[in-house]
Amino acid sequence: MTPATHSSDHLLNLTGAFLDVWADRVRLAVEGEVGASGSGPAALLALATWPDRSVDFLAGVLGLTHSGTVRLVDRLSGEGWVERRAGIDGRTAALRLTRRGSTVAKAARSERRRVLSELVAELDDQEKAVLGAAMSRVLRGQPRTRTEARRACRLCDHSVCEGPACPVSMSVGGA
Fold first, then answer.
1. Does one domain contain both 11 and 76?
2. 16-34 pLDDT tens trace
3. What stretch of H or E contains 119?
4. For residue 73, what are the contacts with CB-CB under 8 A and spacing of at least 6?
């Protein structure tokens, strides 16, 4: 193996381990805060960001089938976290968090932020700036549809990164 190949392979391994470790930590922390696993926490955070949307919209954000999303919404409704209201066209239901669901989503988002703060705690300001620029460049460089962008940002705090500050949104090229 040449040094360049080894270095590139090493970077790929480091990137994979980094992403796996932190994705697991965020997932476990958010699931622990919500008290539910699977797609439930992501559904709550998505509905906090995009209220009054349909099951089909939520299915796209979560990457689930329509029937799987209906079952998920049934479970979240059973917990008292989500309610169905009359939709815009009279044929679909609009999904909205209840007051209790909003409280749970807010706590989950706060827990996500706490875990991610640990991620960058060891970095100085210059390292944080370099990391932020590199991540923005990579995210901006991956063309995606609006649905794919919503899926990528389903756990994000959308009040932090809007418009040109959101590299994922800036990468949208299709419907």
1. yes
2. 999 999 999 999 999 999 9
3. helix 99-120
4. 43, 55, 58, 82, 84, 95
DSSP 162: -
What is the pLDDT at residue 5?
A: 60
Q: Quick one: which of 75, 73, 52, 53 has its CA closest to 64?
A: 73
CB contact at 8 A, 170 and 149: no
CATH of the domain at 18: 1.10.10.10
Residue 154 neighbours by CB distance under 10 Å: 19
**DSSP letter, residue 121:** T
pLDDT, greater one: 13 or 4: 13
Domain extent at residue 57 = 3-122
Task: Give the chain's count of helices (H) and strands (E).
Answer: 8, 2
Q: What is the number of structural domains in the chain?
A: 2
Inter-residue contact 72 to 37 (CB < 8 Å): no
User: Cα angle at 44 between 40 and 45, to 5 degrees?
Assistant: 120
Q: Residue 91 — φ and ψ, nearest 5°? A: -100, -25
Q: Based on the domain organization, do 106 and 133 belong to the same domain?
A: no
Residues 100 and 26 placed together within one structural domain of the fold:
yes
> Residue 143 has which token pair?
């063309």
Give yes or no for a contact between 69 and 50, defined as CB atoms under 8 angstroms apart: no
